[in-house]
Amino acid sequence: MEHELVITERGRRSGLPITVAVHATGRGMAAGGCRLEHYPHWRDGLDDALRLSAAMTGKCAVAGLPLGGGKTVVTLPDRRAPAPAARRDLLHDVGDVIASLDGRYATGPDVGTGPDDMTVIAERTRHVFCRPRSAGGSGDSSPHTAAGVLAALRTVCADRFGSADLAGRSFAILGLGRVGAHIAALLAAAGARLIAADVDTARRVVAARHGATWVSPRDCLTAAVDVLVPAALGGLLTAASVPALRCAAIAGPANNQLDAAGTAGLLHERGILWAPDIAVSAGGLIHATAVELLHETPERAAARVHGVGDTLAAILSTARADAVSPATVVDQLVARSLGPVRSRPEPASGKSSPPADAAGTVTRPAMTS
Ligand code: PHE
């Protein structure tokens, strides 16, 4: 068993299957968003929680945060968003499961949830990031995730094309949800040429607002562009899809973009630069942690988010020097930061010696929640 703790429970109020997966707390309390999504079976939701929580461990380690990886997945019965009363019930059910973990895990927003949902969860537990600012939280994480992605895209362009300038470069944004829409706005402002897609055709207006050409998800995935930006659900890069790609590089906020670890090798062989998602997507988590756990100023938090670009630059230069894929570099970073011992560490109490972060420096700020 790779995970420290996995709970799947049928919500007392909602009757819906809720999984909270805590992958690792060796670096600190586990953090990871609460996803509301339809799956064919609750076991599929459980599987996704296992994969997503493991990715959060890597995300925290690469970003040098004093946190471990966790995730919450609520398996919805169909694709429709729950009605307000049902939504409240299921968020209270989620809050009760998190409360039972007594600080080993804190949640935040993810696919299908936002800051207002965090306020409802907070009625049952205090272990919640990203409530609205008016409610005492750090607010919506999506603009910060997008800011981190933009810094990563500049790094990717510098590495692949020799200039960090985004003006005139072409991007295909796959997914115009909370984060994808912010990325479209930032890229448009930087003078980039955009195409975009979403399974939800109502988001065509978002594309139009930013001057992006609307295409089908399939055409977006295989578009001949400089950079593909996956900003929806994961698993889109597969042995079947990689041969059809026509982009030079891939970098985006979607979690778990590869269907399997080996797919990174296929991209590398094709000469497509894939920026590992756990490095690219960390901006929202970095901002929430900086503001709510470390009590930093907005300026310092923004600087940390911008650091996503520098972290990625270090990864890409190591990959180049060692003639390996960026994915391999990231795997090594994560393994090193978690240490050789895979037995269960003590929960974060401040008593154990501080772990080294991905850059080899030691960080263990006081945990306040
Ligand atoms: N869901 C986002 C992520 O996967 C953002 C997040 C912010 C999650 C804060 C938890 C806490 O990184």
Which helices and strands appear, and what pairs or packs with what?
Elements: E1 5-10, E2 17-24, E3 30-31, E4 34-38, H1 42-63, E5 68-76, H2 84-100, E6 105-106, H3 115-121, H4 142-161, E7 170-174, H5 178-189, E8 193-197, H6 204-209, E9 213-214, H7 217-221, E10 227-230, E11 249-250, H8 263-269, E12 273-274, H9 277-280, H10 283-293, H11 298-322, H12 326-338
Parallel strand pairs: 3-5, 3-6, 4-5, 7-8, 7-10, 8-9, 10-11, 11-12
Antiparallel strand pairs: 1-2, 2-5
Helix pairs in contact: 1-12, 2-3, 4-5, 4-10, 4-11, 10-11, 11-12
Bound molecules: phenylalanine.
Q: Which features characterize this protein?
A:
369 residues; alpha/beta; six-stranded mixed sheet; six-stranded parallel sheet; 12 strands; disordered C terminus; binds phenylalanine
Describe this structure in words.
It is a single chain. The chain has 369 residues and is of the alpha/beta class. It has helices spanning 42-63, 84-100, 115-121, 142-161, 178-189, 204-209, 217-221, 263-269, 277-280, 283-293, 298-322, 326-338, and strands spanning 5-10, 17-24, 30-31, 34-38, 68-76, 105-106, 170-174, 193-197, 213-214, 227-230, 249-250, 273-274. Strands 1, 2, 3, 4, 5 and 6 form a six-stranded mixed β-sheet that branches. Strands 9-8-7-10-11-12 form a six-stranded parallel β-sheet, sandwiched between helices. Strand 4 (34-38), helix 1 (42-63) and strand 5 form a beta-alpha-beta unit. Helix 2 (84-100) crosses helix 3 (115-121), helix 4 (142-161) packs across helix 5 (178-189) and helix 4 (142-161) crosses helix 10. It is globular. The two termini are 27 Å apart. Bound molecules: phenylalanine. The site of phenylalanine has 14 residues, from helix 10.
